[in-house]
Amino acid sequence: MTKTARDLFVVGLRNAHAMEVQARELMERQSERLDDYPEVKSRIASHLNETREQLRRLEQCLGACGEDNSSLKDTTQSVMANVQAMMHSMAGDEILKNTFANEAFENFEIASYKSLLALCGAAGADGAKSLLEQSLKEEQQMASWIDSNVEKITMEYLRQQERQAA
Length: 166
Known about the structure:
With 166 residues, the protein is mainly alpha-helical.
């Protein structure tokens, strides 16, 4: 284990923790406004539970390194998530903006977990591998769900707009 690899791994874990705090805040705000999209609301609620577990796993990884999360990063990401949710809520096509943003965010999370997994060996953190792999799998499943539902969500939004216009 090199000090540089361990340091990079710890910074990556802290960044991932802040990222998951942001994800949690986004999903909590979004789920409050998804009554017209019950399937999306259900999937967001399910992934919100996964995200809470991912936070727990990241805290476990940090603890195994003798470290903890960065309160500053967590707070900053939480504020950013709430601002983003507020901005999207003012848009008439909020569901579409959230869908596009969620797909991008899921892929960001996937890249983050892949990077952490690449560092495990060099950082002497092989014990973290299974925890990070579980989180990666959940993010890939959510990204896949969003990707396969963009068209469906778009057309449901269109139907609702047409009903309101009639």
